[in-house]
Amino acid sequence: MRFLPPRALRRIAAAALGLLVAGEPAFALSRIKDLAQVEGVRQNQLVGYGLVVGLNGTGDTLNNAPFTRQSLQAMLERLGVNTRGTNLRTANVAAVMVTANLPAFSTQGTRLDVTVSALGDSKSLQGGTLLVTPLLGADGEVYAVAQGSVAIAGFAAEGEAAKITRGVPTVGRISNGGLIEREIEFKLNVQKGVRLALRNPDLTTSKRIAAAINDFMGADTAEPTDPSTVALQIPPRYQGNLIRLLTEIEQLRVEPDQTAKIVIDERSGIIVMGKDVRVSTVAVAQGNLTVTIAEQPQVSQAQPLAQGGQTVVVPRTGVKVDTDEGKKLAVVRDGVSLRELVDGLNALGVGPRDLISILQAIKASGALQADIEVM
């Protein structure tokens, strides 16, 4: 009998394990990196007020935007130009709000993207240049400065009898237009403990994350404190090297759990149902009473040579009532899956608007084991 070398056996075992893993559903497991984020590793929002110049007559009307006039005069005074008491009539300047997100652990001198949005009655920011604009954080401190040429995705063109607008020409973006001037102090590597914040809070998911971390570490270092938080104590061998621990933990895979929920957006008619939605035995009938009223006035003319004859408009109204008598009562079986529920409702010819009402009625009857969230 021929024996395989240990290296060949390990390769065969690894290949077999790969086949088993490949046979599992790809969506069953998710990385902890995708399910949670480390507390303190976050972006910070910045905002500023500035001026965009160089517009081709599409800027703010200074008579209608006094803040643009005041900002323009203040800027010119800082540059040594006195315009007080004069009548400014330029249409090449627009007041804008500048927003940006300061990434976590950004260092001084690095750049970030900024978004520029018109504040007044400017028609377009195309071809404009943003002047130096300080970007402030929630504490009122300046963390970045923005300046540069504005790039917009839309455009507007008009003539005397026609006008066309594509996209939003009053919002633009400056790639790498912000320069970071101040850093936010946060020393992650010397923390004695960290907390993982779940993006979708759930008791079962937080427990599974803690169990996966403990199995990997070989000790009880992680503990779920609430549905959205997992507290992690730093083992002695990782003291002073927290980055190494987090990079190993965030690659662990966990099967997330979710509650049975139906999300409804009545404005757009969008319905999203989770895979765990279940329905008890219930009978559903869907029908509409439609009344159609059509006005078809007719013109009645007088006979030729008639004395005192006049042409009049005679009203004629047609009324049609549709009670949808062809609709039938359908029975939805107990414990049907999401696919069976959707197929059954589609068989009734139910549209999105009617489906919203049916789901709410089933929920009111107590036969729907899921939460309904109306956006």
Automatic annotation (TrEMBL):
InterPro entries: Flag_FlgI
Signal peptide (residue range): 1-28
Any Gene Ontology biological process: bacterial-type flagellum-dependent cell motility
Quaternary structure note: The basal body constitutes a major portion of the flagellar organelle and consists of four rings (L,P,S, and M) mounted on a central rod.
A Pfam cross-reference name: FlgI
Species the sequence originates in: Salinarimonas soli
Protein name, UniProt field: Flagellar P-ring protein
Function per UniProt: Assembles around the rod to form the L-ring and probably protects the motor/basal body from shearing forces during rotation.
Subcellular localization, as worded in the UniProt entry: Bacterial flagellum basal body
